[in-house]
Every structure is written in C-alpha cells, then in structure tokens.
Specification:
By secondary structure, the protein is mainly β. The protein contains 1 helix and 27 strands. The strands form 6 sheets. The chain has a 7-stranded antiparallel sheet, with no helix packed on it. A hairpin with a 4-residue loop joins strand 6 and strand 7. InterPro entries: Pirin (IPR012093), Pirin_C_dom (IPR008778), Pirin_N_dom (IPR003829), RmlC-like_jellyroll (IPR014710), RmlC_Cupin_sf (IPR011051).
C-alpha cells in the first residue's frame, strides 16, 4: 500500500502519532434522564465508580449519580474535547466552568497544572440521551509545559464546515476543527498550543461521506504524521483493499489516497501534525519529558492540588435549566442558549 503506512484496529482508546498522545472515543446510548441528571435506569450490576463495561450500551465511567469523570488533574499537555452528540459539564480548579455539546469543542491547555471534571448530564427525561465524544490528547513541547492553564470554546455555530460534491454529485462534508481544508481556515486554537503555529501543520477534521462517495484526501508536506479514523459506517475501499469500520489508517502525507465509501454514510476523524520529537514520560494524567519531572509534578499536585477544588462536589454538574455556556477563569462569560 503506497499511501498507507499502517492499519490499526480501534477500541475505546485510539493509538495516535506524535504530536498527539492518544484519542479517547466515547459512544454511549444513555437512557432517559432522571431528576438528578443521571440515567433513569437501574445501576445494579455496574461497578459504580469504575464502570467501563458498556452494559446496556452505556457507561457510568467514574460517575456515581451522573455519568462522567469527576475531578482529576492534568499537566503538560492539552485536551481537545469534541462532543458531537450529548452534553458535557466542565468545572475546574481555576473557577472556570461550562456546559457544551451537540457539536461544540473545548480546547484546554493543562500547561503547568489544572484539575477539572467532565460530567455528562442527561437532561432529556422524555427520550434517550446519546453521547458521542472524542478527546484528543495533544502534547506540548518542553518550552510550553509550564504555561498557565487555559481553555477556549469552539462553539459549533462558529466552526467552519466545508461541503462539496464528488464527480457523481455525492456529498463530502468536512468540519474544520483545526488547520485548513480547501482554503477554509479553522478557528484559532488555544494560544499556547502546538497547533497555534501554522508551520506545525496540525489538522483536526471530522469528515462525513455520503453513501458511495469518493473522497481524495489532500496531500501535505513530508514529515507530518497523519491518521484517518473510520469510526462509523460499513466499509471503505482504498489502495485495492476493503476496510471495515473500526479501523485507523496512518497515511503518507505526500501520497494521494482515494477513499471510496461503501453503501452507508461514513464518518471519519482525521488528525495530522508535525512531530514534536521530544522524549515523552507519561504517568496517569501527567505528561512530561522525564520521569524526574513526573515525580516533581506528583509532589507539586500533592502540595497544591493545582489550586484546590472550589466546587461543592468533585462530580459537580450545573443547573439543569442552563443551556450551553462558558465561564472563564478571568470571569468572562459566554452564553449560547
């Protein structure tokens, strides 16, 4: 295969290439919500606090009442959280907060350290509450690992979407979260991100192909790492092979590759970037360059808790009546609905 370096089978955590660290994939068919914004269903048989088994098609994760991830620390990298379906409630140790989803993206630079929680409130009490969420971990170079923590919202109304047709008038839709597609530039990422410098070639796109559509993936400069994840659909044909959904393709950036979609609508996540090329030391929520730095980070967290936790509970959720909003550490507030 001239244009494909490797084919990877996907699970709930997708392997990535430098400058990315990994991608978490959450697809949960949550039932109707109850008065506490949790599932209106029995939790019997679940390992509450550590529920990742997908019983009945959904998980509580580390949540006990509301699904999600109560307060936990990060340091030395960034998270790009793409919530295509459902909602996420963010709270952090800087006093920042927000509710986002249904196509929104949160770009958070952990930098020198932050605690945050990510809970998934089930607001709909009449119908199911499906969740589709991707969280990319994007590394920071050594020079940026101690920048101040920061987060930025990319609201779905503002994220550019490019729609065009193939030669048979079948639709190709590209949501440009980072980088550029066909001359359309994404919104600016967080200011200290590796993606903030154009020469680093960071691209994050969500691509949707109509049944039987043909898409030519744009080529790019040599030396960039790029992967196309086929996460929903039936199968695609490329390079003389048929590949079913649930696979990722590491691509050669300078080689043209044609993706022929199958007889169902196809959904893809495309990521690309110039490798940082530095040593990576990882332990849980900390990503540094050496394990001595990891030990120092753990000590710092034990001493400071990265600012402590200003919320009533570690699994804090926002008022059920609130729509999408963001409150930043400087007090700036954005209200979307």
């Amino acid at each position: 295969m001239k244009a494909i370096q490797k084919v990877r089978q996907l699970g709930s955590q997708w392997e990535t290439q430098d400058p990315f660290l990994f991608c978490a994939y959450h697809l949960d068919q949550y039932p109707k919500g109850n008065d506490q914004m949790g599932p209106d269903a029995s939790l019997t048989g679940r390992n509450i606090g550590m529920d990742f088994n997908g019983k009945d098609g959904w998980n509580m994760y580390h949540g006990r009442t509301v699904p999600g991830f109560p307060a936990h620390a990060h340091k030395g990298f960034e998270t790009i959280t793409i919530v295509e379906r459902g909602l996420a409630d963010h709270s952090d140790s800087l006093g920042a907060a927000g509710r986002f989803g249904e196509g929104d993206v949160q770009w958070m630079t952990a930098g020198k350290g932050v605690q945050h929680s990510e809970m998934f409130p089930l607001l709909n009490t009449e119908e199911e509450n499906p969740l589709l969420l991707f969280q990319l971990w994007l590394n920071l170079p050594k020079a940026s690992k101690t920048v101040p923590a920061h987060y930025k919202m990319l609201w779905h109304e503002d994220i550019p979407v490019v729609t065009h047709l193939d030669e048979e008038d079948r639709e190709i839709r590209v949501k440009v979260i980072a980088g550029t597609y066909e001359g359309t530039r994404a919104l600016s990422p967080a200011p200290d991100s590796w993606a903030a410098k154009k020469e680093n070639g960071v691209e994050v796109w969500l691509v949707t192909l109509a049944p039987n559509a043909t898409w030519s993936v744009p080529t790019a400069a040599a030396g960039l790492n790029r992967t196309l994840y086929f996460y929903e659909g039936h199968e695609i044909a490329t390079e003389g092979y048929k590949i079913p959904k649930g696979h990722g393709l590491d691509l050669v950036p300078t080689e043209e590759i044609i993706i022929q979609n199958g007889d169902q609508k196809g959904f893809f996540l495309f990521i690309q970037g110039k490798p940082i090329g530095e040593p990576v030391a990882k332990q849980g929520p900390f990503v540094m360059n050496t394990y001595q730095e990891i030990n120092d980070a753990i000590t710092e967290y034990r001493q400071t808790e990265f600012g402590g936790w200003p919320w009533p509970s570690h699994d804090h959720t926002h008022d059920k009546k609130r729509g999408r909003f963001a409150i930043h550490a400087d007090g700036t507030e954005e209200i979307r609905d």
